[in-house]
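Q: We require from you a single protein entry containing the residue sequence and its fold in token form, and nothing else.
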Amino acid sequence: MALLDVDNLHVYYGKIHALRGVSLALGKDQIVTLIGANGAGKSTTLRAISGILASTDGQIYYDGQPLRDMAAHRIVGIGIVHVPEGRRIFGRLTVADNLRIGAFQVTDKKWIADTEERVLEMFPPIRERLKQVAGTLSGGEQQMLAIARGLMSNPRVLLLDEPSMGLAPILVQQIFDTIVSIRESGIAVLLVEQNAFLALQIADYGYVIETGEIALHGTGAELLDNPHVKEAYLG
């Protein structure tokens, strides 16, 4: 059984039918990527899973438990954490405060301290700037902080939306190396990413979404070798 299972999901923005029966699965300790053009429904899928958007039909299962219509804060509490597009850090707070906000539903102080130490080992630039106001960080550091804050919420599933957007190539590779490390730590990752080539390289499985529907799916290697994917998304 998949850890996260999206079954025939439909989402509307007003009269716009944004998701048209999307189905996908994420196994334990997997990286699964969702690729597609702008406006295809990638971010909408993540928002529906995390409870930010309401779905009108279909179901989302987490470890066999139905999630549809569950409040977003409860979804975080059971282990699904969304790191949204555009970082969305608290720019006026310090880096340390941003990390602590990530653990707002965790009551075990030792766990918080131990997890913060592991997160800081994963993101050394963040350790050096704990007292710095988060809004003054570079774009790459802000992305690291956004992911680190998500990890402080004790996820079993991490939803990552466009983590490489706007970053220099050397930082992009660092972010992707970090995503692999997160998977190796036992956290499953559902990755939305414009850089389809890098995403498919690290993905155990992938889905191509076009105009709100899953058009193709397969292992990362299979999609990298697919003629349609090569022409449409790999350049």
Summary: The mean pLDDT is 94. The two ends are 35 Å apart (CA to CA).
